[in-house]
């Protein structure tokens, strides 16, 4: 989390929407074997928890049940060139959106894992415009059992939300407008749009 309080954004609905829209993040934990990270699809439960699954062979599986972990979701980002400022006494920086979620992890039972997989696939299949959505019942039961046996489901109960929305809030409105235009022109329209919509 960036230390500048100007870059905080405490709108919980926006943070929840960020998790739902991106749907993917990283789980970090300190283990006896050293720090470990896993890259995972995420589901926000709506009641203060995020769910994810790991391959049974992932190094985190042996350590994470009952542990405190950190989930990080990265949103849009973009390089900010000093040439976009009217003030020449500037240096390069990076605008970005990131959300850190800290909490205690618990292992899910098999029913919970199956519900998570159904939710994840239904959510992501709904984003595909063409064709009929894939559902778990299209997989032969023996194959599905074997595949589910190779993964483990977890739920992190969120104890701390730490968002960073670094959108040039520390610059004047004219400077922000130039930066947003520069980011958009250089192929980062999502972060430019957030700058325009979220910073007064």
From TrEMBL:
> What Pfam families does the entry give?
FMN_bind_2
Where would you find the membrane-spanning parts of this chain? Answer: none
Q: Which SUPFAM superfamilies match?
A: FMN-binding split barrel
| Gene3D superfamilies documented for this protein | Electron Transport, Fmn-binding Protein, Chain A (2.30.110.10)
Q: Which InterPro entries match?
A: Split_barrel_FMN-bd, TR_PAI2-type
User: Record's PANTHER family?
Assistant: PROTEASE SYNTHASE AND SPORULATION PROTEIN PAI 2 (PTHR35802)
Q: What is this protein called?
A: Negative transcriptional regulator
């Amino acid at each position: 989390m960036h230390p500048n309080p100007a870059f905080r954004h405490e709108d919980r609905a926006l943070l929840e929407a960020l998790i739902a829209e991106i749907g993917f993040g990283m789980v970090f934990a300190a283990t006896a074997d050293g720090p470990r990270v896993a890259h995972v699809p995420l589901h926000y439960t709506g009641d203060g928890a995020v769910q994810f699954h790991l391959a049974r062979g992932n190094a985190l599986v042996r350590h994470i049940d009952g542990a405190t972990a950190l989930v990080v979701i990265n949103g849009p980002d973009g390089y900010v060139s000093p040439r976009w400022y009217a003030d020449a006494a500037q240096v390069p920086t990076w605008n970005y959106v990131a959300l850190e979620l800290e909490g205690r992890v618990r292992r899910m039972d098999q029913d919970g894992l199956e519900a998570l997989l159904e939710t994840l696939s239904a959510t992501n299949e709904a984003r595909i415009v063409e064709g009929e959505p894939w559902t778990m019942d299209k997989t032969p039961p023996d194959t599905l059992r074997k595949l589910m046996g190779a993964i483990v489901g977890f739920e992190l109960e969120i104890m701390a939300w730490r968002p960073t929305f670094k959108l040039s809030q520390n610059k004047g409105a004219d400077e922000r407008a130039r930066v947003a235009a520069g980011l958009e022109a250089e192929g980062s329209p999502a972060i430019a749009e957030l700058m325009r919509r979220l910073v007064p």
